[in-house]
Amino acid sequence: MFKRVIGQGQSETKVSAPPLPEIRHSEPAPVPSAYGAPQIVAKPAPVATRNVLSSDVEIKGTVKFTNDLVVDGKIEGDITSDGTLTVGENARIKAEIKTGAVIIYGKVHGNLTATDRVELKSTAEVVGDIKAKTLSIEAGAIFVGKSTIGTPSQATTASPQPPAKNAPAPEAPKQGILPATVV
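User: That's the sequence. What structure does it adopt?
Assistant: Structure tokens below.
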């Protein structure tokens, strides 16, 4: 309620303000309103983003991203992230890839290192080495390279025993022509 004073006399006029909309959010930020009282305005919650490089995009160099990246174009260089890389069916990648996870539908030429998983879908073609916690290969996928899967356990490294002092030395393999016996 507001008090309105006109001239010398004290006449009172009641003016009511329109109701303020009620906005609820976990982290309110006060913003001054036209009526003098702070009004609560909601901040947008952080949303995980998915970045997309379409089939007409070509990149030469280093690609770094957060969260998710979907590539359907061409990349030549290095790809680094803690997020998930999805290589589309039209993608052609010649790169060293170091990410949290990789899902491949297209062609990749280069080594892959994933802290979590690598998935090769039926249309995938990978030429390079794979290091990951888990590897999934669908029927029809092409993989040329070596893989290191899983996390190594803490094995104790035993030192090899030195040969005994009186033991005969191991014989070297013999090469050449072996003598024949005539019967």
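Residues 54 and 72 are 5 Å apart (CA to CA).
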